[in-house]
Amino acid sequence: ASPIGKVCNAVNEEHYMEQIQQLSEKIADLKVSVDNTEKERDFYFSKLRDIEILCQRPELEHLPMTKGIRKILYAADAKDSSLPEANEIITRSPGMFSVSDEAE
């Protein structure tokens, strides 16, 4: 091989090694990001599971607030928020939040 060919190969090899190093660092960063995201997901899933268990308690399951929470927890479509419907369940319950009802 000619000296020029050896120089070109060395330059190419150095360039590829730099790319490999950069991509390896990016992979390591993405792995950390995935780990953090999974920890956060598990944290919030655990909280939601605790709320679900509370909503299943017989002394609480008939309450409008519990029904509203269950409406949100068990919504099948992630695109549409169940919050408006859950709010409707809660607010149409007589005497739940109205001050005038308590005075009567």
TrEMBL record:
Its localization reads: Cytoplasm, Cytoskeleton
Specify the superkingdom: Eukaryota
Task: Identify one Gene Ontology CC term for this UniProt entry.
Answer: microtubule
| Keywords on record | Coiled coil, Cytoplasm, Cytoskeleton, Microtubule
Q: Mind listing the GO molecular function terms for this protein?
A: microtubule binding
Q: Which residues lie in coiled coils?
A: 13-40
Which InterPro entries does the record match to this protein? EB1_C, EB1_C_sf, MAPRE
Where is this protein primarily located?
cytoplasm
* Domain EB1 C-terminal residue range list: 12-82
Q: Under what name is this protein listed?
A: EB1 C-terminal domain-containing protein
